[in-house]
Design goal:
Helix content: 25-40%
Mean pLDDT: 88
Strand order of the largest sheet: 3-2-1-4-5-7-6
CATH architecture: 3-Layer(aba) Sandwich
Strand content: 15-25%
Number of helices: 8
Number of strands: 7
CATH class: Alpha Beta
CATH topology: Rossmann fold
CATH superfamily: Vaccinia Virus protein VP39
Low-confidence stretches: 23-28
């Protein structure tokens, strides 16, 4: 989710270029190759498995950017499922709508969120995915509360983000690097009421060598005290 004004990561540049070219009816071989390259290192099938979704599932992509994962999710859940792609910036919202139209993905709903509210329907989702966006959330507590409320009991939350140079640094120092550590996020997710199921501090590594971690959590099946 584009909340802070930060340098555009290399893979987001590729994604934006691909969408713009696709909208113009142009998708040269080198761009297709770059998208395939991300598919290779991003371990998309493992992300889908972590979300525990399939045909007919309802899932949100919070901080969807240009829609790289939105498209994968739409194909994973099929025509009977729904993907709610949440962004707050007009540019990203336009990209997401264009992506859904150009790739004929009619099961995508584009949602304009707020910095403190993903604007997701209550207890309606099987899973929520947040990729390279958690560190951008200036109101992360409110956002986690909104995501918690949108998940059905037992629903999965998968967060993926970039590992900071120093995971022992304060939250503010980590955010300054436009990254955040998995241990810090795990604590914040638990405070929000989620159960952490799994964590992989070295889930993926991009072509540029940047490390990306994955955290898998869920809304508890049995009701507990409010977060």
């Amino acid at each position: 989710m584009t909340i802070r004004h930060s340098p555009i990561a290399p893979h987001r540049c590729v994604r934006l270029l691909a969408i713009l070219l696709l909208a113009a009816g142009l998708l040269p071989a080198e761009v297709r190759a770059q998208r395939s390259d991300r598919d290779a290192w991003q371990r998309v099938p493992d992300v889908m498995a972590a979300l525990a979704i399939g045909t007919g599932s309802r899932v949100a992509d919070v901080g969807a950017g240009g829609g790289y994962f939105t498209a994968h999710l739409a194909r994973q859940v099929g025509a009977d499922g729904r993907v709610l792609a949440v962004e707050i910036g007009e540019r990203e919202l336009t990209q997401l709508r264009r992506l859904a139209e150009d790739e004929s993905l009619e099961n995508i709903d584009v949602i304009r969120g707020e910095v403190d509210d993903p604007r997701l329907p209550e207890q309606s989702l099987n899973a929520v995915l947040v990729v390279d966006a958690y560190h951008e959330m200036t109101e992360h507590e409110a956002m986690m509360a909104g995501i918690y409320g949108a998940l059905e009991p037992g629903g999965r939350l998968v967060i993926m983000d970039l590992a900071p140079p120093d995971a022992s640094a304060s939250r503010d120092r980590q955010i300054e690097s436009h990254r955040i550590g998995i241990d810090l996020v795990a604590r914040e997710v638990e405070v929000a009421g989620f159960e952490v199921l799994d964590r992989d501090p070295e889930f993926a590594r991009s072509g540029s060598g940047r490390g990306q971690w994955m955290l898998v959590a869920r809304r508890p099946v049995r009701p507990g005290p409010p977060p």
